[in-house]
Amino acid sequence: MKKGKTSTDGMEQVNGFMDKLEHPLKAEVNMLRQIIKNVNKDITEQVKWNAPSFSYKGQYLVTFNLRPMDHIHLVFHNPMISKVQSKLLEGEYKDRRMAYFTGTKDIQAKRSTLEKALKDLIKFQKE
After folding, report:
1. What is the three-class DSSP state of 63?
2. Which residues contact 53 (CB under 8 A, 6 or more apart)?
3. What is the C-alpha to C-alpha distance for residues 120 and 125, in angstroms, rounded to an integer?
4. What is the pLDDT of residues 72-99, one digit of tens each?
5. Which of 10, 65, 108, 110 is in Cβ range 3.0-4.6 Å of 73 for a Cys bridge?
6. 8 vs 27, 45, 70, 82, 121, CA distance in Å?
7. How many other β-carbons are positioned within 10 Å of the β-carbon of residue 59?
8. What residues does 65 pair with on adjacent strands?
9. Taking a C-beta distance cutoff of 8 angstroms, is the pair 121, 96 a contact?
């Protein structure tokens, strides 16, 4: 997150972005936003890469990739993500992993796995 921005500024920025967003899975994007923010009170939100993005104490956690229209793509871009063991996370990149959701039922089925992956990522950042 840029210095000088408050979490309220970021939230207002994302809410404005979401108001204008035209995406067939917009409701599901909002559902995932709430799940992510509710994992930890210190998670903040801003717009990065023309999409909602989340940080924990200044360290990026995950950002939406909203280019696909038939699914939701989350990019976990944090050096500690490689330590997180989760069936949800795909890819063997040095500093990022991906997660994909096809709709509301898929989000509900993967919710606890997503929450655990985020909690684990935050835990590794604290070490």
Report:
1. strand
2. 45, 46, 47, 60, 62, 63, 64
3. 9
4. 999 999 999 999 999 999 998 889 999 9
5. 65
6. 22, 9, 31, 30, 23
7. 13
8. 73
9. no
